[in-house]
């Protein structure tokens, strides 16, 4: 999981969020309340909800997904994988004590699998 997460508030202009995607080369932006509680998430597909592709004076709250599936730090990799598969998600925020602790993406799982030792007998 990534713990140094770039976030926005619901009052962040959509144009600023677009800039953060490009600047940090990311695909998901958790949306936090002033108390730092998770209230939503924004992905590139959410920008398609806007008739002008975000060029206007829109705020993140207009496009964010507010019902977000989440993980706890004690959840297993299998739990995360099941959530990814069942829901076709690509990112899951990790919440600890009501606050954002990190974000787990499908790329994180691929990297984990890639670290497994390769045995020649697996290719027989």
Quick structural overview:
The protein is built from three helices and five strands. With 124 residues, it is of the alpha+beta class. It has one domain: CBS-domain.
Question: Could you walk me through the main structural features you see in this protein, from its secondary elements to its overall organization?
Answer:
The protein has 124 residues and is of the alpha+beta class. The chain has one domain (8-117): CBS-domain (Roll). Helix content is 25%, strand content 19%. The chain has 3 helices and 5 strands; from the N terminus they run E-H-E-E-H-E-E-H. The strands form 2 sheets. Strands 1-2-3 form a 3-stranded mixed sheet, with no helix packed on it. Strands 4-5 form a two-stranded antiparallel ribbon. The longest helix is centred in the first third of the chain and has 11 residues, at 14-24. The N and C termini lie far apart (33 Å). The mean pLDDT is 89.
């Amino acid at each position: 999981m990534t713990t140094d997460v770039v976030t926005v508030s619901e009052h962040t202009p959509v144009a600023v969020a677009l800039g953060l995607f490009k600047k940090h080369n990311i695909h998901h932006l958790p949306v936090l309340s002033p108390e730092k509680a998770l209230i939503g998430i924004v992905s590139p597909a959410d920008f398609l909800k806007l008739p002008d592709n975000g060029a206007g004076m829109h705020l993140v709250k207009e496009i964010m997904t507010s019902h977000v599936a989440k993980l706890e730090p004690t959840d297993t990799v299998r739990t995360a994988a099941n959530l990814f598969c069942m829901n076709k998600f690509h990112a899951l925020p990790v919440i600890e004590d009501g606050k954002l602790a990190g974000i787990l993406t499908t790329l994180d799982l691929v990297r984990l699998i890639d670290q497994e030792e390769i045995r020649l007998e697996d290719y027989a």
